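tmp note - Protein kinase
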Amino acid sequence: MIREIISNWNRYCKEENFIGIGSTRKVYKVSDYVVKVNLHPIGYTQSKNELDLYNAMMEQGLYDLFARTYYVDEYISIQRYYEPLEMKYNQSFEIDLSREEKLIPNLYEEVLTLLDQEFNSFDLKDSSNYGLNNEGKLILIDYGMNKKLYEEQWVPSAENGILPQIDYDFCTVCESKKELRMYGENDRDKRCYSCGKE
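out:
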């Protein structure tokens, strides 16, 4: 199936398979996999980082806390699909170890420390970066951003309106309060993704 997706990803990455969008990648569900389509070169770097990090975690026996990354090229990456965590009040939230205790897998805190200290990983507690495995425990599904990439490439691109930052506000079309993609401080288009703003 993976070879088929690699050869024909454009055919599978259609609106009916769409499941999420970040600032640098758009995500589609295809069978038991997700295809992350790069919207910006930073997305490609994130995908390469995910592949490298997953392989490093395999060597250390910690891979079961990460969605497996199977394939990466300049256009797409392919990863195992996991049901994403639901938003709260139409927005992502910070994982709180004390409040989310039933979701925390073994070695979670140790792995977060390892990712921070050895891999310079960034944004490890945002709920949008997690899914749930078969046991109902957290599994990282978006783990390719590191502090250097964030500070040296993502922040300047966001500040210049090239990449969106997330704002929590009312959509001017559906009037729901939710996460909106905003391109720089002069962006006045407050439509949500569902109402047409990518």
